[in-house]
């Protein structure tokens, strides 16, 4: 019951508002009605209200009957397997908004898919599938005693395992369609097999997920050949009706011995390179770091708890808790991107990269080697995790309102072709000053990708270290030392080292390249070329807003620092006076 009082009622004589939450007796009601101060007595009925954009985790759990769902900590992390609660892909929010990947097809380019698996069969897209190893339309994995060819089936389950069927777990985009492209299971790879796989049915397939690449042995430098490069270029320019195929790539499993900028697939501008974290926010021991990684998802790692792995489908109708590696990370990202595409089917391949940069979050990720930093426009990044862990809820909400990014331009900012010697104990420092093609049609004002095309060799390639600093002061580690790389002949020949860390920055000004050797043994080498390639747009309104917000935060933090310094100075003065007196 609520009491409503006439405005003339003196405040000192009357109760202003009374709520009775439980049903009262008729005697209480009659008592209130007889009180001359009470204008009206109304019975109040309870009804539901919900916070906008909020979804209870318990609601999601109630709906999911799949036995492994509670163990899929990367979907909803409540602290399973000694993990960190809240450290997940935030799919609950995206699902709560109604996005489950419906209408989107993801291709798993791998060793095949067990498309008869009861958790995959209903979402299998046979039309978009093909076996390039056997040259037939049935990409079923080849049997081996050790189940070696379970890789693709496990990746497929992460993306498109059906929900509420009492089988295994749930895919990130559990209403999406999954296609199998079998292309890994042969003694060797060829350019034509890779190119055919990457360009298979680009008007039907929306997202291609690749959890493979050159050997992660810490001494290989390799990337796509001519036909595959052309296929990828055609994909981003012509796929999906001109919006561009979306290529998701695992960063690599070479750990601290390798650098994913030596992998030409993961470091390509046309791919979204994904790294991983384990369920407590640390890096997995096999994670490679590099400046081309855009964002991260999750895999297993240092924990011995058997439930700390990635739960998904396995061969012959089975389930597993032990999927791992950055192989597990890339399909999770593909699933998140499928949710975003359902929210906005008009997203281009570049839109997806912008959304990844803007909505990925540091969350509770921590890197014991590389600090989190902010670039010149205030975007926070890490050398290993990129711009942070993908956030499905934030991405679908931003995707719904997203306007396609402006046209992309390319500017050759400058090139140094002279031979410069490099020796141990010192650094070679070179600079290129650029107006980023200002005044020309291909002027680049807001950066997306930056490439340093470098030709360099040394008496030991693995000891080479290359850093590049932008005019706005952002330092990118283009190449870390690789202790297993003993090459003394080949070096890097016009190799395009790529960074995403300067995203949104103004490229005009002086760029600085530092090249040196690290290690105990003296080395020598020579840099023969450095060409700076800038890729980006001439307008990006959201960057201006980010800069304003960042500057505002900086001004506030500086004000707080000054106030703290003033307080400390006053305190010191008072202590000095007191000691004298």
TrEMBL record:
SUPFAM superfamilies: Galactose-binding domain-like, Subtilisin-like. It comes from the Eukaryota. InterPro entries: Galactose-bd-like_sf (IPR008979), Kexin/furin (IPR034182), P_dom (IPR002884), Peptidase_S8/S53_dom (IPR000209), Peptidase_S8/S53_dom_sf (IPR036852), Peptidase_S8_Asp-AS (IPR023827), Peptidase_S8_His-AS (IPR022398), Peptidase_S8_Ser-AS (IPR023828). It catalyses: Release of protein hormones and neuropeptides from their precursors, generally by hydrolysis of -Lys-Arg-|- bonds. One of its GO terms (cellular component) is neuron projection. The keyword Metal-binding does not apply. Its EC number is 3.4.21.94. One of its GO terms (biological process) is peptide hormone processing. Keywords: Cleavage on pair of basic residues, Disulfide bond, Glycoprotein, Hydrolase, Protease, Secreted, Serine protease, Signal, Zymogen. Residues 404-540 form the P/Homo B domain. The active site is at 110 (charge relay system), 151 (charge relay system), 327 (charge relay system). It is found in: Secreted. GO terms for molecular function: serine-type endopeptidase activity. Gene3D superfamilies: Galactose-binding domain-like, Peptidase S8/S53 domain. Belongs to the peptidase S8 family. Furin subfamily. PANTHER family: NEUROENDOCRINE CONVERTASE 2, PROPROTEIN CONVERTASE SUBTILISIN/KEXIN-RELATED. Serine endopeptidase which is involved in the processing of hormone and other protein precursors at sites comprised of pairs of basic amino acid residues. Responsible for the release of glucagon from proglucagon in pancreatic A cells. This is Neuroendocrine convertase 2. It comes from Oncorhynchus tshawytscha (Chinook salmon).
């Amino acid at each position: 019951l609520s009491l409503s009082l006439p405005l003339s009622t003196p405040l000192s004589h009357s109760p202003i508002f009374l709520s009775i939450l439980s049903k009262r007796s008729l005697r209480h009601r009659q008592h209130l009605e007889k009180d001359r101060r009470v204008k009206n007595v109304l019975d109040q009925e309870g009804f539901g209200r919900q916070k906008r954009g909020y979804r209870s985790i318990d609601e999601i759990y109630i709906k999911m009957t799949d036995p492994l769902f509670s163990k899929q900590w990367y979907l909803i992390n409540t602290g399973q397997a000694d993990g960190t609660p809240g450290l997940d892909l935030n799919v609950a929010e995206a699902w709560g908004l109604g996005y489950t990947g419906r209408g989107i097809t993801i291709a798993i380019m791998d060793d095949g898919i067990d498309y008869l698996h009861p958790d995959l069969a209903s979402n299998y897209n046979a039309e978009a599938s093909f076996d390039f190893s056997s040259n037939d339309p049935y990409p079923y994995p080849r049997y081996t005693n050790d189940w070696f060819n379970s890789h693709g089936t496990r990746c497929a389950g992460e993306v498109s395992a059906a929900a509420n069927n009492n089988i295994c777990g749930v895919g990130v985009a559990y209403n999406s369609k999954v296609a199998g492209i079998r292309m890994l299971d042969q003694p060797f790879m060829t350019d034509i097999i890779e190119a055919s796989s990457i360009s298979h049915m680009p008007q039907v397939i929306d997202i291609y997920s690749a959890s493979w690449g050159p050997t992660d042995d810490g001494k290989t430098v390799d990337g796509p050949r001519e036909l595959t490069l052309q296929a990828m270029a055609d994909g981003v320019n012509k796929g999906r009706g001109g919006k561009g195929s979306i290529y998701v790539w695992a960063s690599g499993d070479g750990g601290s011995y390798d650098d994913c900028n030596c992998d030409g697939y993961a470091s390509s501008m046309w791919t979204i390179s994904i790294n991983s974290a384990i369920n407590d926010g640390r890096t997995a021991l096999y994670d490679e770091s590099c400046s081309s990684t855009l964002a991260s998802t999750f895999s297993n790692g240092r924990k011995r708890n058997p439930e700390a792995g990635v739960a998904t489908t396995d061969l012959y109708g089975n389930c597993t808790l032990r999927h791992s590696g950055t192989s597990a990370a890339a399909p999770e990202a593909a699933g998140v991107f499928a949710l975003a595409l359902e929210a906005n089917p008009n997203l281009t391949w570049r839109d997806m990269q912008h959304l990844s940069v803007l909505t990925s979050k540091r969350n509770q990720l921590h890197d014991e080697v590389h600090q989190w930093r902010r670039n010149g426009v205030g975007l926070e990044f890490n050398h290993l995790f990129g711009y942070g862990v993908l956030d499905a809820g934030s991405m679908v909400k931003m995707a719904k309102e997203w306007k396609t990014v402006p046209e992309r331009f390319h500017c050759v900012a400058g090139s140094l072709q002279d031979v410069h010697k490099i020796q141990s104990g010192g650094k070679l420092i070179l600079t290129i000053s650029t107006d980023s093609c200002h005044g020309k049609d291909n002027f680049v004002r807001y950066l997306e990708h930056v490439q340093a095309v470098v030709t360099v060799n040394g008496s030991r390639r693995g000891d080479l270290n290359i850093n590049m600093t932008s005019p706005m002061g952002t330092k990118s580690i283009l190449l870390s030392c690789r202790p297993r790389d003993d090459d003394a002949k080949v070096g890097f020949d016009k190799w395009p080292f790529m960074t995403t860390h300067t995203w949104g920055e103004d490229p005009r000004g002086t760029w600085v390249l530092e090249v040196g050797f690290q290690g105990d043994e003296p080395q020598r080498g020579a840099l023969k070329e450095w060409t700076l390639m800038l890729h980006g747009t001439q307008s990006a309104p959201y960057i201006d807003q980010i800069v304003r917000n960042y500057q505002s935060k900086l001004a506030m933090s500086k004000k707080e620092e000054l106030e703290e310094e003033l307080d400390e100075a006053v305190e010191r003065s008072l202590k000095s006076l007191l000691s004298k007196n």
